[in-house]
Amino acid sequence: MDRTVLLVGTRKGLWIGTSDEARVDWEFTGPHFDMEEVYSCMVDTRGDQPRLLAGASSSWLGPQVRHSDDLGATWAETPNGAIRFPESTGATLERVWQLVPGAEPGVVYAGTEPGAVFRSTDGGETFALEQALWDHPHRPQWNAGFGGQAFHTVLPHPTDPQSVTAALSTGGVYQTNDGGASWEPRNQGIRAEFLPEGQQYPEFGQCVHKVTRHPARPERMYLQNHGGVYRSDDHGASWQSIADGLPADFGFPIVVHPHEPDTVYVFPIGGGDRRYPPDAKARVWRSRDAGETWEELAAGLPDGFFVAVMRDAMCADGHERAGLYFGARNGAVWGSADEGDTWRQIVSDLPDVMCVRAAAI
Description:
Oligomer: single chain
Strand order of the largest sheet: 3-2-1-27
Shape: globular
């Protein structure tokens, strides 16, 4: 693996960066899908050649999942946008918030707004609704947060195709272990701080911002909540706080190291109306012991940083010496080629960054 590809989805298109394994000098092309919102993107490295997928939304044509098999030189549109709700649901697709590969060849999952999960078996060209989740009795009570009601996280089990974990804003974490025939909430121990005292640990209704895990230890999961950072060691059956030692427990992204299940990264920001980092200093925080202790990563990162990093705007690549990346709402993307020890700005002046995805190819 001697090349790196970085996808940057923004409110006004997609940019594609490429570099060598050193990840110092970058070349970017874009905007792809000019003036379309790109809330989700994916680099699929499972085949003979990488496939890029992007969930873009045009104010004129609506949402569309596009794919490219030549690193963005050309893009193919898919029938009817690839993802559409069946007429029987009475729902209309607004955005595609998540695109992620499944455990089986050709399987891709998508999380959408309104809150639903779709599954593809042909590499993301067509998708089918996970009907049992859509019909879940809790769904009428899933409210819309400030960002809308959406399944923003889908985590297929790395070795068990029957198991998928998904999370939505103001609904919490749900999981199937029977191939989508049934789904159950997995929120025990996650606090909903916005609810009255005595009601802050409901069965569902938490505002979960992001969930991640490492494929080598899938029973361990990490979660960034609307107020709270958590770890589960039993596949989401219960959660415990790991926020002690962080400057704030509010944030959007949480990323696990691609080779170390106990190493996890967060980007804390202030709660309430203060959607920028504590003291307005851009800082990534890393734990190497599954959240027992945390260290601040600051080398190369700016002060005077009055913007947020969104839930899918932080990621890692797959190089042996892992690279980390985050994009901010000021249109800048920062990268580290040494697991977060040092950082440098690799592109600036893009539109509002909504998602970043990186891969070694």
